[in-house]
Predict the 3D structure of the following.
Amino acid sequence: MSASLLTRRRLHRQRIASGKFESAAEVVAWLGAVQAQDYLASLWAIGLRMREATAAVVEQAVVERRIVRTWPMRGTLHFVAAEDVRWISTLLTPRVIAGSAARLQRDFGLDEAALAHCRKIVTEILQGGKVVTRSALYAALDDAGVDTAKQRGQHITGRLAQEGLLCLGPRAEKQPTFVLLDEWIPASRTLARDESLAELARRYFGSHGPATLHDFAWWSGLTIKDAQRGIELAGADLQPETLVDKVHWQAVDAVNIDDASDLHLLPAFDEYLVAYKDRSAAVDAQFNRQVIGINGLFNPGIVIDGRIVGTWKRRLDPKAVAIELHPFRPLLKKELAAVNKAARRYGDFIGLPVQVSQAGS
């Protein structure tokens, strides 16, 4: 199988090219987790996998506590389904916490005594169902003698979220908010470790497959040994296939639709790229730096036939959104028409008319 055919299958399994969902919660549960440190990009990552969606509809799923934004894996913000937040975090955050403990103590003075003090203060601030903006929470911590400057506040809140104390609530006037997890999501699934490994493997390969063992380990942050165990525990729900000279796994019920000729405008950090250790099937090596910056930032991508053929930038103003294309090659007339169609869909999603231009034109 060619690399192009492999990525086109992934477009279908990720529900970018077909089989759109009705709700944001369905999208997030299907994917297992959606990377979300770029908030507006993550809304579009969910919206483009829905039949009809607006940014407001996706945000309403946060308000209704159907999806949760927190730090469940790789030390990075993700959206997860509310019913999955505890078992995923319980499985994946201990390794992140252990791996970051020395740095938090060395660079930010966050040893166990300092963290215990932070837990106490944050609980007192948020308890009683309070939804507190990030700036207000940091100010309250500062007033209590806990310095939040120079990213210390971000590391405090991230660590407390990994421990299951808090999570992010709905935005308030474009500001992030924090809530106590046990008050915001009082009940969700809990699974034994082996059950969690099996379920995570089913979710990942069901929605991201075909993918390799190393892709799964990268995405989840599991060790190779634990990732392999997850595949083994998933048993007959997954099937292997050798593609592009590597063993790939996918769900046994996967319907492989090998035509994905539509053009897609993917957001920054979309699961289509970030969820795989090996991205060579989707991105030519000569364009790696344009797609993934030296600082590890994943740029929004233009996808045709499963391949990244350029990047795009968005500039918002109150009356319109300007989309500037940065193609790696000249786009055909029919491709430009498809770009305009995809851009209009994005404009509908955020509720603004769209103006499309190419860099240098």
Q: What stands out?
A: The chain is about 45% helix and 20% strand. The mean pLDDT is 95. The CA atoms of residues 25 and 67 lie 6 Å apart.
